[in-house]
Specification:
The chain is mainly beta and 129 residues long. The protein has one helix and nine strands.
Amino acid sequence: MLSESELEVNKGLTHWFIQMDPTTVSLVPRLRQKGSSGGHKWVNGSPRSPQEVKMIPQAGVLGGIQTAEDGLSRRFDFVLLAEWDAIVVIGDHWVDDDGNTWVVESLDPYNGYEVKAGVKAYGKALGDG
């Protein structure tokens, strides 16, 4: 376990690293809503406040160009790195200005100084980072 001073140093380094190449996202939570027939469906919740994060591409891991029914689409894997107090939940998502969809699919164990999530980006206008 890290000491309080080590946590503060790591929080500062994480902040600095994010600020070198920040991306602002407003994560939209997925909420489970009970249907009238007893089943459930997933609906969008209210977007959270914008957060500055760093998107780190993960080259070559199940990513790249894929064939879709209506032509080629792309899917790339990223690590979303956020500051220690960020709110990120599996299932959160957002759509960027180019119409690509980004989905939080995993969270690393919390270490006290950063939040790390595995994110997949889907769309036809994606590059590899």
